[in-house]
Design brief:
Layout: E1 14-18, E2 26-32, E3 35-44, E4 58-65, H1 77-80, H2 85-99, E5 111-120, H3 125-146, E6 159-167, E7 170-173, H4 177-180, E8 185-192, E9 197-204, H5 211-240, E10 247-249, H6 254-264, E11 271-273, H7 274-277, H8 291-303, E12 309-319, E13 326-327, H9 341-352, E14 359-369, E15 375-386, E16 402-404, H10 416-422, H11 424-438
């Protein structure tokens, strides 16, 4: 089975709109495909009776599907006189999951109420609710901290959820209702941003599935979890970010500069290139035998010329059957044609010939030196295969030869947003962005 609208390991397009309501301490409208959920967080100055005098708070949740959220009108719980069993199970899951995100001893004797109301349902309502509920929770906590009502940040980690399953023997990520209704295996995963398991809900509708298949499904979902965590950070950034100094990037490569500015564009920082701040050219000989070493050489050389915080990246393509070539020499692979993308690609294809093992990975390392002179490193990796010939007009370098794992297109055939969501540089920059937001 192959999806028509997305790859099997690709989640549905997801967007969020924060501060959608006036009264809650935190609110977000989250949409995943055709599923839409309104999530709110409200904090009240009391706790359940069993916690009175215990110097700790509580978090509880409620979940409901609005009558028009499905094709057939869903009767309200109030009209039936009791909570629907499915709704009760889901709201307990949301509460258990969100309590893993927060140290309740740091909020005082207060209760945080999380409400998730499904406006439109097309599969994944519980996972979408958890993803939006974390954002609402973070917004509410940020508001209380800004007003001095909570002194110490109680958020311990991010929480995200995603459905995975098997339909007709094919492993899929983020099932729509049509897929979920036909699934042989149906799982809901809840992880924190350290990729520790919060909860796994799963069942086999047909034949039992193996531990190996379970592990494969979890591995398949990991890139999508990274996307969700990045989306959550972006959604809460304007509430939590601090003023940052200018950051100087140690490159003038227009393609690379655009990618980096696109990926960091929602932060309140001013990214300049080295030619923007230096009076004379700065050429650094990349003599290290690792990406980390070369990236650090560039940041140190630039830092010697400016008092601003600086960062640089070094990227390499590592082809397994060639012993890791071109690796750190990727930009200079065809030595006689320094930094000639076409000649580099030609040499790579010639070296590979008709090899059957064409597996490879891109790796990016970002070196950052802050205004205090402290060094930091961030890494991103994207696995894939080398095509037998170039395809696509976008990107640069080896993009037209590299097919990311799980896809049937090269980087050069993807849109910028598609590439940035899965690329090595995108993953390294998301880690860098998360670090900057916490400073």
């Amino acid at each position: 089975m192959m999806r028509n609208d997305r790859q099997n390991d690709e989640m549905r397009p997801t967007s969020v709109l924060v501060d959608t309501l006036e009264h809650p301490d935190g609110s977000v409208l989250i949409q995943c495909g055709k599923t839409k959920v309104l999530c709110t967080a409200m904090i009240e100055n009391k706790v359940p009776f069993f916690l009175k005098g215990k110097k700790t708070g509580w978090l509880a949740s409620e979940y409901a599907m609005l009558p028009a959220s499905t094709a057939t009108r869903k009767v309200r719980d109030a009209a039936r006189g009791k909570i629907d069993g499915r709704s009760q199970e889901i709201q307990r899951l949301i509460g258990r999951s969100l309590r893993q995100a927060i140290d309740l001893t740091k909020i005082g004797e207060r209760t945080i109420w999380i409400d998730c109301d499904v406006i439109s349902a097309d599969g994944g309502t519980r996972t979408t609710s958890i993803n939006g509920a974390y954002i609402a929770l973070k917004l509410a906590i940020d508001k209380y901290m800004k007003n001095g009502l909570i002194k110490e940040d109680p958020i311990k980690n991010q929480i995200a959820a995603l459905s995975v399953g098997m339909v007709g023997g094919t492993k899929l990520v983020d099932l729509s209702y049509r897929e979920d209704s036909r699934a042989d295996v149906d799982l809901n995963l809840v992880f924190n941003d350290r990729f520790e398991i919060i909860e796994i809900q799963g069942t086999s509708e047909g034949n039992p599935f193996t531990v190996e298949q379970l592990n494969d499904l979890i591995k398949l979902a990991k890139p999508s979890f990274e996307e969700i965590f990045a989306l959550q950070r972006r959604a809460t950034a304007k509430h939590s970010k601090k003023e940052l100094t200018t950051l100087v990037l140690s490159t003038d490569n227009s393609h690379k500069v655009k990618e980096i500015k696109d990926l960091l564009g929602d932060l309140n920082i001013d990214i300049k290139t080295k030619s923007d701040v230096l009076d004379a050219p700065l050429d650094v000989e990349e003599t290290a035998d690792t990406l980390e070493g070369n990236a650090t050489l560039k940041t140190k050389a630039l830092r010697d010329k400016t008092d601003e915080a600086v960062f640089a990246d070094d990227t390499g393509l590592f082809v397994n059957s060639l012993g890791g070539e071109p690796g750190v020499h990727s930009a200079r692979y065809a030595e006689a044609y320094d930094h000639d993308d076409a000649m580099n690609r030609k040499k790579l294809l010639e070296r590979l010939g008709d090899a059957t093992d064409r597996s490879a990975y891109f790796k990016t390392v970002i070196s950052y030196i802050d205004k205090h002179g402290k060094e930091h490193l961030f890494e991103g990796i994207c696995e894939g295969d080398i095509a037998t010939e170039a395809h696509g007009e976008h990107g640069f370098g080896y993009d037209s030869l590299f097919i990311p794992k799980g896809m049937d297109k090269t980087f050069a055939e993807l849109t910028e947003s598609e590439k940035n969501a899965i690329s090595h540089r995108g993953r390294a920059l998301e880690k860098f962005k998360a670090f900057l937001m916490e400073q």
